[in-house]
Amino acid sequence: MISFFGDVYLDQQYDLDFDFEDYVFNLEYPLSKKGKPAENKVNLGQDKSYIYETFGKYPLAVCLANNHIMDFGDFGYQKTIEFLEKNKIKYFGAGNELNNFNNPCILDTKDGMIALLGYACETTNSIFGNKLHNGTAKLDLELIIEDIKNVKEKVDKVILNLHWGDEEIQYPKPSDVAIARALIDNGADLIIGHHAHVIQSSEIYRDKHIFYGLGNFIFPDLNETSFFKNGVSEGNYIKKQNRLNRTSLEVIIEREIIKTRTFRLKNNRIFLLNFRIPAWIPKKMKAYNVYYAFWLRYRMLELYLNKPRIPSMRQIRLFLGIGK
Q1: In the beta sheet, which residues pair with residue 106?
Q2: DSSP string, 86-118
Q3: Containing domain of residue 300, as a range?
Q4: Residues 296 and 248 grouped into a single domain
Q5: Do residues 255 and 323 share a domain?
């Protein structure tokens, strides 16, 4: 039995109020803050992993295909790889073209041979690798199909981890739905999504499960030194995680059966929770954009009510949807 968890960022030890066997998650931070910080973005990193302290054992593998694994440059990335290899943790989804971004990662499990592959969408503003530099694998439909083709006959299951979607939005973009279904059509057996920081809709397509977003498994409130320019920070990124940011989905594979459980983080503890998974799968971009515009207004109003202030004319225009 293997559990898949969503985005993980550990700034300390957390307590898990449930049992599990083997597991895989999206490692959303480099295991070093001593490298050269990436510029003009939110920078996440920890010099201590807190993985063993939290889970009680190391994972089978971690996905590195995300928009934070390169936040402290190649030094931070290499320190992460050193830690993973020292502790016999496999990894996938980042590297360079010469090692195919460490895709696929092959696991020999009780449920058979499983291939894990990871990719990040360009919309996540990830730092992508190439022939000369390490970075994340890019979500390119044709390249992913080729990767699936190259490994399909060697394993029992091909599982894709895709870092994509709009942050804070509970529903997948129609373009992502089309990509996911095309990947199932071309041999993927299961799709695990992350990046939105909330649980997104899921569906069964051609008897295969697509989980568009598992949400944050562990992602604390943030107060991170960020927005570097020429190695100097221009300010901290501060975010208080809301209820949905603290709710996550676990996907469990047990032979041919796929099950799910939902959790919530509260007071440094993860506990089981009955949570209704979003069901809507937008078919057209117009419908998605209507929802997205509504959500933006709701979010602006929520922020204003939490911290009342006189809005600028630009904010008023954005709220009314009459321009920038």
Answers
A1: 115
A2: HTT-EEESEE-GGGGGGPPEEEEETTEEEEEEE
A3: 284-324
A4: no
A5: no
Between CA 196 and CA 77 the distance in angstroms is 23
Are 225 and 213 members of one domain?
A: yes
Could you read off the pLDDT tens digit of each residue along the chain, which spans 324 residues? Answer: 999 999 999 999 999 999 999 999 999 999 999 999 999 999 999 999 999 999 999 999 999 999 999 999 999 999 999 999 999 999 999 999 999 999 999 999 988 999 999 999 999 999 999 999 999 999 999 999 999 999 999 999 999 999 999 999 999 999 999 999 999 999 999 999 999 999 999 999 999 999 999 999 999 999 999 999 999 999 999 999 999 999 999 999 998 899 999 999 999 999 999 999 999 999 999 999 999 988 888 777 766 666 666 666 665 666 566 555
Q: Confirm whether pTM is higher than 0.85.
A: yes
Give dist(CA 59, CA 57) in Å, integer.
7
* Whether residues 199 and 297 fall in one domain: no
Query: Are 241 and 216 in the same domain?
Result: yes
